[in-house]
Each structure stands twice: as C-alpha cells, then as structure tokens.
Amino acid sequence: MGDFDDLNTRGLVLVGCGRMGGAMLRGWLARGLEPGAVTVIDPHLAPEWLDKGLRVNTGLPADPAVLVLAVKPQMMAQALGGVPRLSDTLVLSVAAGTTIATFEAVFPGAPIVRVMPNTPAAIGQGISAMIGNGLATPAHLDLAQTLMGAVGRVVRLDHEDQMDAVTGLSGSGPAYVFHLIEAMAKAGEAQGLPAALSLELARMTVAGAGALAVDADEDPAVLRENVTSPGGTTAAGLRVLMDPDTGLPPLMARTIAAATERGRELGKAAQ
Ligand SMILES: NC(=O)C1=CN([C@@H]2O[C@H](COP(=O)(O)OP(=O)(O)OC[C@H]3O[C@@H](n4cnc5c(N)ncnc54)[C@H](O)[C@@H]3O)[C@@H](O)[C@H]2O)C=CC1
Ligand SMILES: O=C(O)[C@@H]1CCC=N1
C-alpha cells in the first residue's frame, strides 16, 4: 500500500491553488498522488495547472478523504461558502491566523487539522507544524502527517496558540532567508564583485550552510565557531552582525514579533 492510496481512492479537494496550495500540490503529485484524484477549486487557477489531468472547478467527490483549504485568510469566508457540507472528510487548513474555532463554526462535527507549512514544500524540503481539534482522531492526524510529511518534515504542537509564532518563524521564514540572500549579494556587489557572481556566492552559501546546519550533529553556534578564526575575517564580520543593539538578534526578534502579531490580528479579524 502506498502512502496516498486512501487519497487516490476517495479523492483530495484543494480550495485555493496559489503559491502555497500550488507548492503542496506540486510536492504531492511528485510523490504519487494521482492527478485524477485531485479536485482543485480556484477561480483564478494559473494556466500551468490546466493540462495536468486534475479535476478543475468542478463538482466535489461525495466523500473526499481530505479538504485542503489554502486561500488567503481574508478570502476564507467566501471560499467556504461554496463548499458543500461533507460527512467524513478531514478539513485541513494552512491559512495563517484563521483559528480552529472559526472552522468548527462552519463544519460542525468535523475533524479539523490546522497546519502551518512553508513553500520549500514544493521541493520536499518544507517544515509543517500541525494541531488538530478534539474530533481529529489519531487516524486523521496520521493522514495530515502523511500529506505534509510527503513534502517535508512535520512537527506537532501542544497548543493552538503556538501557531502564530510558528507562522512568524517558519511559515514566513523562507522570505527572510531569501532576503538574506538578496542582502548578501548586494553587499558583495558593494565590495566590487559582479552582480551575477555575488548572487551565486550568496545563494550557494545560504544553501550549503542550511544543509550543513540540518546534517551536522553540532549546534548552529558550534558550526558558526568552526568558521571563525581568532582575529580573522569572520570575527570582524560577526562583531557587526551579532551586536546586541544594532545586529541581527534584535532585528530578527522584531521581525518575528511583527509577523506573529499579524497572525494574531488575522485570526481576530476572521472571527
Ligand atoms: N505563501 C506562503 O508562503 C504560505 C502561505 N500560507 C497560507 O496559505 C494561504 C494561501 O496563501 P498563498 O498561497 O500565499 O496565496 P495566493 O494568493 O498565492 O493563493 C490563494 C489562491 O486562492 C485562490 N482563491 C481566491 N478566492 C478563492 C475562492 N473563493 N475559492 C477558491 N480559491 C480562491 C486565488 O485565486 C489564489 O490562487 C493563506 O491562508 C496563507 O496564510 C501558509 C504558509 C506559507
Ligand atoms: O504572508 C503570509 O501571510 C503567509 C503566511 C506564512 C507565509 N505567508
């Protein structure tokens, strides 16, 4: 039995196939979800999805295994209005902010799992945090784990109120890392490197360091020390980057606090 057998039999419905829905769908299809088992509901579906054998903007299967909600929190109420009531379907939302209670009001009696993934899911390198409601059985959580595990690692949360901080850290985090690449490349240019070379050096440095941070037994702090020769170049750079007042730690703290707070606001607006 393959991981996706139940999904391939009963079907998966994806409401919202934009950047995040598309990233997950790309990962699922690459890992064995059959296109014919997927119903995509999205009024503005990108043309790249039209020739993949998916069921697009058509009637829902009678009893899909899972309904994945990947529309913007602000569009959620409107999107849910078009979904018929389902009997034995797991509702899985990836929306920032929107709480389990909001979905329970729309789908009374349904098992609901709230997940925060990130876009490296498209290449199987995502990380998702998830938590279910009281009606989500171990089997439902396993199904959610199968889906999200197919596109990266999965961690389970103890409390739903951890979800906004998760969103601010790992949900939004890829954007911070892409900006780090942009900033490093610009800084290299400022030191006289050609733009293309500088971008390549920045991109591969972040990719290689990220892979090493995952692969190595040591803490990131030890890996950092391994790069740092006493009196050398890295120490000079880190004196600037690690400054407790003007360096990365206070900047990253403010960044993740702002993103976390926005998640809380989105949750309140949806209630
Ligand atoms: N982009 C990211 O990195 C992440 C996004 N998320 C969450 O994923 C959700 C989607 O975000 P993105 O993919 O970035 O947005 P997006 O704007 O790229 O995609 C949303 C999709 O929903 C579609 N849509 C709009 N109204 C609809 C309706 N009534 N019915 C069906 N589809 C409808 C749009 O046409 C669009 O394709 C959000 O709730 C966001 O919080 C979660 C983790 C990471
Ligand atoms: O920016 C957002 O609201 C979504 C949630 C996490 C990443 N993107």
Automatic annotation (TrEMBL):
It is found in: Cytoplasm. It comes from Paracoccus acridae. Belongs to the pyrroline-5-carboxylate reductase family. It comes from the Bacteria. HAMAP family: P5C_reductase. The lineage of its organism: Bacteria, Pseudomonadati, Pseudomonadota, Alphaproteobacteria, Rhodobacterales. The gene is proC. The keyword Amino-acid biosynthesis applies. InterPro entries: 6-PGluconate_DH-like_C_sf, NAD(P)-bd_dom_sf, P5C_Rdtase_cat_N, P5CR_dimer, Pyrroline-COOH_reductase. Its EC number is 1.5.1.2. Coiled coil: none annotated. Keywords: Amino-acid biosynthesis, Cytoplasm, NADP, Oxidoreductase, Proline biosynthesis. NCBIfam families: proC (TIGR00112). It catalyses: L-proline + NAD(+) = (S)-1-pyrroline-5-carboxylate + NADH + 2 H(+); L-proline + NADP(+) = (S)-1-pyrroline-5-carboxylate + NADPH + 2 H(+). Transmembrane segments: none annotated. Residues 14-97 form the Pyrroline-5-carboxylate reductase catalytic N-terminal domain. Catalyzes the reduction of 1-pyrroline-5-carboxylate (PCA) to L-proline. Residues 160-266 form the Pyrroline-5-carboxylate reductase dimerisation domain. The keyword Glycosyltransferase does not apply. Pathway: Amino-acid biosynthesis; L-proline biosynthesis; L-proline from L-glutamate 5-semialdehyde: step 1/1. It holds the Pfam family F420_oxidored. This is Pyrroline-5-carboxylate reductase.
